[in-house]
Amino acid sequence: MSLSKDKDEQLQTFARITLRQDEIIEMMRQDAERMEKIIAAQDRVISMLEKQLVIADKYLTKQLDSLK
Fold first, then answer.
1. Which helix (H) or strand (E) holds 45?
2. Burial class of 24 by CB neighbour count within 10 A (0 to 12, 13 to 18, 19+)
């Protein structure tokens, strides 16, 4: 009887561990999706800043040329 009870407890423990692993995997998947969205947003910001730098460079070059 004790052997059967031990086996049952082991199976229950294994089931809990497996369930928890599945939950952790799902959380990691969701974290990865959020990170992808954050990286995409950062890429858009970088692109906008690069465009603003080009505009600022052209403006400052004009200003400098007008001083010559």
1. helix 2-67
2. exposed
The C-alpha angle 38, 28, 19, rounded to 5 degrees, equals 155
Query: Given this model, what pLDDT does residue 38 score?
Result: 98
- With tokens 């010559």, the residue in question is 68
Model pLDDT for residues 54-64, shown as the tens digit of each residue:
999 999 999 99
- Look-up: residue for tokens 């400052």? 60
Dihedral pair phi/psi, residue 29, rounded to 5°: -60, -45
Mean pLDDT value of segment 6-32: 97
